[in-house]
């Protein structure tokens, strides 16, 4: 009997990582989800990741605790104010303060370690270089560089047993296309969370970059956004 292929999925509980997980499932992988409690300013995304993992019937879901708030440097891990009311298409002369230093490098490194232990051939990450906030670790050239590093850094690759592929199926998709793709794959986006600065009751602020990108994506897709926003 053939063994089912395994994939590690980096699951934040947002639109992109959830859609990437659905794509991995559609491709027939046995799913191993990894979520990070990295000292972010709220736990809503962790709860969303757990909901998505259950809905996707992942084989195992681990939540890794990494205290990036100990070093700060981001509006998501410190008391820096989260920017609000910027247009999704507004040009930003600098990388926004919601960038978390080296976050995807750290997350992919943990995913790479687990993939090697599991003998999982693929790691799925939901990064996107079209409708995004301008983070440097969401670009194709970054992922290509990490792939080269992974090829050099793992025993499995060096010994020729297995190459672990870094998969970013959404990298060239606009947000509306991502949402359409997820809907076709049966994703319930009501399980997901995008807001950087939710209210105490869990409602999304509707004003941060992530909320506004989400709103625009659903509007462009002509699909109702199931998110509960503070502004209704």
Comma- or semicolon-separated keywords:
single chain, 232 residues, alpha/beta, Rossmann fold, 5-stranded parallel beta sheet, 35% helix
CATH first level: which class? Alpha Beta
Kindly state the percentage of residues in helix: 25-40%
Distance from N terminus to C terminus (CA atoms, Å) equals 52 Å
**What is the CATH architecture assignment?**
3-Layer(aba) Sandwich
How do the strands line up in the largest sheet?
Answer: 3-2-1-4-5
Q: Give the amount of beta strand, in percent.
A: 5-15%
Helix count, DSSP H or I runs of 4 or more residues: 7
- Please tally the β strands and state the result: 5
Q: Which class do the helix and strand fractions yield?
A: alpha/beta
Element pattern in H and E:
EHEHEHEHHEHH
What is the radius of gyration computed over CA atoms, rounded to a whole number of angstroms? Answer: 17 Å
The CATH homologous superfamily name equals HUPs
How many distinct folded domains? 1
Low-confidence stretches: none
Largest sheet at a glance?
5 strands, parallel
- Rounded average pLDDT: 93
Shape: globular
CATH topology: Rossmann fold
What does this protein structure show overall?
There is one protein chain. The protein has 232 residues and is an alpha/beta fold. The chain has a single domain (6-221), classed as 3-Layer(aba) Sandwich (Rossmann fold), CATH 3.40.50. It is built from 7 helices and 5 strands. The protein has a 5-stranded parallel sheet, with helices on both faces. Strand 2, helix 2 and strand 3 form a beta-alpha-beta unit. Helix 1 (15-26) crosses helix 6 (175-184) and helix 6 crosses helix 7. It is globular. It starts with 5 loop residues before the first strand and ends in an 11-residue tail after the last helix. 38% of the residues are buried.
């Amino acid at each position: 009997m053939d063994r089912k292929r395994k994939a590690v999925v980096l699951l934040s509980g947002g639109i992109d990582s959830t859609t990437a997980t659905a794509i991995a499932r559609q491709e027939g992988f046995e799913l191993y989800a990894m979520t990070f409690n990295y000292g972010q300013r709220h736990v809503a995304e962790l709860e969303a990741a757990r909901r998505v993992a259950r809905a996707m019937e992942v084989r195992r879901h681990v939540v890794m605790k990494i205290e990036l708030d100990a070093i700060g440097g981001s509006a998501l891990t410190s008391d820096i104010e989260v920017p609000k009311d910027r247009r999704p298409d507004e040009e930003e002369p600098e990388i926004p303060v919601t960038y978390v230093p080296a976050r995807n490098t750290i997350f992919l490194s943990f995913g790479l370690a687990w993939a090697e232990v599991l003998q999982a051939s693929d790691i799925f990450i939901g990064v996107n270089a079209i409708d995004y906030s301008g983070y440097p670790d969401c670009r194709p050239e970054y992922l290509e560089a990490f792939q080269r590093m992974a090829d050099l850094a793992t025993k499995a690759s060096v010994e020729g047993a297995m190459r672990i592929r870094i998969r970013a199926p959404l990298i060239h998709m606009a947000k509306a296309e991502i949402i359409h793709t997820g809907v076709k794959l049966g994703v319930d986006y009501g399980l997901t969370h995008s807001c950087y600065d939710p209210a105490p009751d869990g409602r999304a602020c509707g004003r941060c970059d992530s909320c506004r990108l989400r709103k625009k994506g659903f509007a462009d897709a002509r699909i109702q956004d199931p998110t509960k926003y503070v502004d209704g």
